[in-house]
Structures
1.
Amino acid sequence: MTQDRQKFEKIISLCKRRGFVFPSSEIYGGFAAVYDYGPYGVELSNNIKSAWWKEMVQYREDIVGLDSAIFMHPKIWEASGHVKGFSDPLTECRKCNQRFRVDTLLDDAGVFADEKMSEDEINKIFDDNKEKIACPNCSAKDFARAEKFNLLVQSNLGNLTQDWTKDPTYLRGETCQGIYVNYKNVLNSSRVKIPFGIAQIGKAFRNEITARQFIFRTREFEQMEMQYFVHPSEEMDHYEKWRERRWKFYLDIGLKEENLKWHKHENLVFYAKEAYDIEYNFPFGFKELEGVHARGNYDLTQHSKFSKVELDYLDPVSGEKYIPHIVETSAGVARTFLAIISDAYTEEENEGEIRVVLKLPFKLSPIKVAVFPLLKNKPELVEKAKAIFDDLKLSLMCEFDDNGNVGKRYRRQDEIGTPFCVTIDFETLENDTVTIRDRDSMKQERIAIKELSNHLQQRVS
Ligand code: ATP
């Protein structure tokens, strides 16, 4: 096993052991490419979403939020092109019958291929490079012809007379379609004027072909998307600004810059002006974290055509009427989660032992402060610790822990990335001071209880 794979396996194991991520339906043998978020996972995930929402909605006067439904009119997916064109090229290993995405197999072999190529184009490249590509599962070099496989997930939602096999309702394949079809509602009900954005965080569903990539590629996942509506002549200016802002966002939430890079799309869909992905150096290599795309007016034009509703914008000052162009920023919660944990995962030597610590940025840590009574069988210590916990929990996500000895409690908090541990000992009972232990330096300092809350809030923020 390579070192990177080893690190990845350790991260997956820590995520399960410490309650970040569980395989779905585990007691029934699991359910492929679906995961559940445990007690610390849901906190980290919420903190990522909150950082994104602050940056994209709260701190901006020109962007508003939206929460559109997962079920939408089936015509939307025809208009968007998903019913016909939302597919990946799939192949099957003839020896072990495992299925793979051909573009990913080619990519891993260092051959460029794009998921948007036609079936014939991709089969030609696949044939030409046959010798280079072995099955990641059984190493055989015998694959079936690649076929396009539609990624939309169908449901049987509908009334009893509807034949849903002919006329299916889909679980949405991306959140942004909910934004496009609500563009007029937002325009008419809020005070936005072009240029403006609509932001949304929500679930999306895709029939993905996956290959042991943990939460990187799942069939149910969350997206954080923002569509920015602009005048056609200003599209590329806004696009460049959004590229800069989105790059900075990842630095602000603590990712190391050397683990980020830009990837320019060479094979653009016909309507797009330019598209870049921000890639992160995951333990399995640089892969997409977020897409920033200049999409022209394709989305609104298509929805206007299919719905027969005018989706023009009337400039209140110049009187000009036009269909806005769109700059899209589209990120995944789980991929950001995995990037953050991969960046933070650290093993260091400490007194002859290996200490595992998640050096998460404080604002993303699931638990900010852990409160310990030194001994659990001393009621006066427990009572005092509970009182401190009850006070701190009003402003910070805290955890009370009296299990095992203090060393063991530190190890557990290090592994879930808690920046500070507060211990209540016998000296506390004499002079109302406690010790604070810092996760990264492991240094301890004594501080008066009356200063504790302020001190911790300042350091966490
Ligand atoms: P990929 O090429 O990796 O399949 P994509 O280009 O299809 O991704 P988009 O449709 O642009 O992805 O979706 C925007 C973002 O949503 C991606 O950058 C990613 O962070 C996230 N995302 C997409 N598909 C998945 C998935 N199956 N599981 C988890 N996150 C996903």
2.
Amino acid sequence: MNHAIRVHETGGPEKLMWEEVPLPQPKPGEALIRQKAVGLNYIDVYFRTGLYKAPSLPVTVGMEGAGVVEAVGDGVTSVAVGDRVAYAGALGAYAEARCAPADKLVKIPDGISFEQAAAMMLQGMTAQFLVRQTYQVKAGETILVHAAAGGVGLILVQWAKSLGATVIGVVSTPEKAALIKEHGADHALLTTDDIPAKVREITKGAMVPVVYDSVGKDTFITSLDCLRPRGLMVSFGNASGPVTTDLGILAAKGSLYVTRPTLNTYTAKRDDLVATANDLFAVVKSGAVKIRVNQTFPLKDAAKAHIALESRATTGSTVLIP
Ligand code: NDP
């Protein structure tokens, strides 16, 4: 017996259907995972709405999960039956049991629960590549982070802080402002503030070398206005819609750089995936980064979880329990 949340046609949260589906058998190179927790991510919304196209419909959405290996296909040597494993970036996660490519799986270290693993693989590895690879955040620098109380945001704030940066976070409510400060942010700005003016004040006119912006359309220009000349705009998400601005604006605002990175590229090679995951596990085990599972929903209620995420009602990470 197996159940999954499937989308037959793209649209609102009501398109997430809880259905009985066959138990898949692992093909060569795959492992069958009995899932204990599934991560909720904004990318799940993009697949549900059709902003990102699934290879075919119906599709089981979801990119991240944690569980126990129940069977392996031919040629799989990296994991074995009974292993506790987690993954990010494999479409098809909203299911009680699923097959995934074995080379996407990492073993969950002792001391990390299934819920924590499902909450952190995608958002935490994203924070890793953003602060350690896309731009190497250094002690003494001041950086700006949008959606700082969200899943990626709350991890990113803590990680940048542990690297010695001064962190300015932007959030939509005073409660979220308090939350990011509890997690180390030095300054919490509200989305209603004149953000470039506040950044100018905080940095004494220098502005910031890097902005991490996952909001997209609504904040793109504001973010550019917070950068110092030749600063880096890291546009890594579209919570408010995709950015469509002409590149000429980068010249006008000070020879700025812009990148639109994805976790997929940064972890495409197995060695890079393992190194990124190990770096994440290390900061979590050291206590430098705490994984906040602030919402839990039964998997069959994934629609409620999507409504909460899209209405900006969640903070930190959210997991779905099969
Ligand atoms: P979050 O928990 O951060 O949720 C989204 C947050 O964005 C909200 O809580 C809200 O915070 C803010 N927001 C601003 N404008 C809107 C809007 N119009 N609608 C909804 N939310 C809005 O989600 P995740 O941590 O899962 O993902 C964060 C972002 O990072 C997403 O854009 C996602 O696509 C991106 N991402 C990109 C990856 C990559 O590889 N490039 C990998 C992982 C995530 P507030 O209320 O404080 O404004």
